[in-house]
Amino acid sequence: MTEAEFTSYYPQFAGFQPAFVLSSCIAQANARFASFTAEDAAEARRLFTAHKLTLYARTALPEGSAPSRALLAEAGMPPQRITGKKAGEVSVTYAAGSSPASSAAATGLADLPETAYGLQLLSLIRQYRRTVYVP
User: What is the pLDDT of residues 85-104, one digit of tens each?
Assistant: First the structure.
């Protein structure tokens, strides 16, 4: 997949800055999904690249801001998943660790549940998961 092919499919990423992040994500995507059919591999590579760029954009520092330890720490924090909630006398429970992403962790892509692109990619990966029969 080339940058032009990717941005023609996802025009919202055209002109992504810094440009080396876009090319790096595409290179990572091109190195994956060899066991998929050609059509599914192309879709998986697009979704993987969009997912990684979305994560980068979410954690990148605001343009023009001087990097401080507080900003760097805040940018690197993953969003917390809510596992429970209660309406009466408000109560919220956050997930600890990576339990919601445990199935994705086996593929080395534990951050997939963090974006819509990642969730789509995760469902595609699950179609290719091979189960091993042990009698």
Answer: 666 777 767 665 544 444 44
